[in-house]
Amino acid sequence: MNEIAALTESQVEEYEHNGVVCLRNVIPMDWIELLRMATEEAMRRPGPNAETYGDTDPPLFFGDLDVWMRNDRFKEYVLRSPAGALCGQAMQSKTSRFFYDQLLVKEIGSSDRTPWHQDQPYWAVRGRQVSSIWVPLDVVPEENALEYVRKSHLWSEFNPQHFNDHTPYEGTGLPSLPDIEADRDAYDIVRYGMEPGDALVFQAMIVHGAPGNASAQHRRRAYATRWIGDDARYYERPGEMAIPTFETPFKDGDPYSGDLFPLVYSA
């Protein structure tokens, strides 16, 4: 299950230019089946950082963090799947070190929108070689797909917000993100219909969001792993910060290291 696809020059250029690239059929189905089993286990036994969004009962939008620490199937994927190598190639980094993981499930009928945001302002990391790979475990029709503002990875940082109530983070000193949803035509928004085996690789500063799951047929289970490259360093951000979810020994400017941030890919 450890076959690794080599990114083409055009795919690397697309990531560099737009901040996101959709890779087709790069995650073997053995890994998808493993992640499906792990997802059901994780939902039966949520971790301390699990959240549900919206006011439906039962909740239709579920998220959890650091699931690889509690589930050996997720851990096997982190350490042995193509994910780290694909991100390393996209980032044009000699190394790819695992940062953290996130499980996101939107059940059929979920109307909860994932708000527009950048990832990196939530994280204690600085650098340009910071990326995510988002892998769907179900068919994702284009109308239910993640949306990205192309080239917004070149923008400055904006203040994060809490997904559960959309309140802004406190004490960051960052400005609010423009209201993209209210003026969609003003932005170059792209989205991709996807099949299991496809993957989205995107730079951590790109502005993105997602609609609810209006599908009458498909759940929208997805597993995202986050990766850091050669230039990434620990950043002691002012104000609220979400990731890492645990204390680390690092000081501002230190490279990440250790068993909780394993080096998975080296070119």
Topology:
Elements: H1 9-18, E1 20-23, H2 29-44, E2 51-53, E3 61-65, H3 72-80, H4 83-91, E4 95-106, E5 114-117, E6 125-126, E7 130-136, E8 147-149, E9 189-191, E10 199-203, E11 208-210, E12 220-228, E13 233-234, E14 263-266
Antiparallel strand pairs: 1-10, 2-3, 3-4, 4-12, 4-14, 5-11, 6-13, 7-10, 7-12, 8-9, 8-11
Alpha-carbon Rg, integer? 17 Å
Low-confidence sequence ranges: none
Beta strand count: 14
Q: Compute the number of helices.
A: 4
What is the end-to-end distance?
Answer: 19 Å
Helix and strand run: HEHEEHHEEEEEEEEEEE
Task: Give a short account of the largest sheet.
Answer: 8 strands, antiparallel
Polypeptide structure, described:
This protein is α+β, with helices and mostly antiparallel strands and 267 residues long. The chain has four helices and 14 strands. The protein has helices spanning 9-18, 29-44, 72-80, 83-91; strands at 20-23, 51-53, 61-65, 95-106, 114-117, 125-126, 130-136, 147-149, 189-191, 199-203, 208-210, 220-228, 233-234, 263-266. The strands form three sheets. Strands 1, 2, 3, 4, 7, 10, 12 and 14 form an eight-stranded antiparallel sheet that branches. Strand 2 (51-53) and strand 3 form a beta hairpin. Helix 2 (29-44) runs antiparallel to helix 3 (72-80). The chain is globular, with a radius of gyration of 17 Å. The protein starts with 8 loop residues before the first helix and ends with a strand. The mean pLDDT is 94.
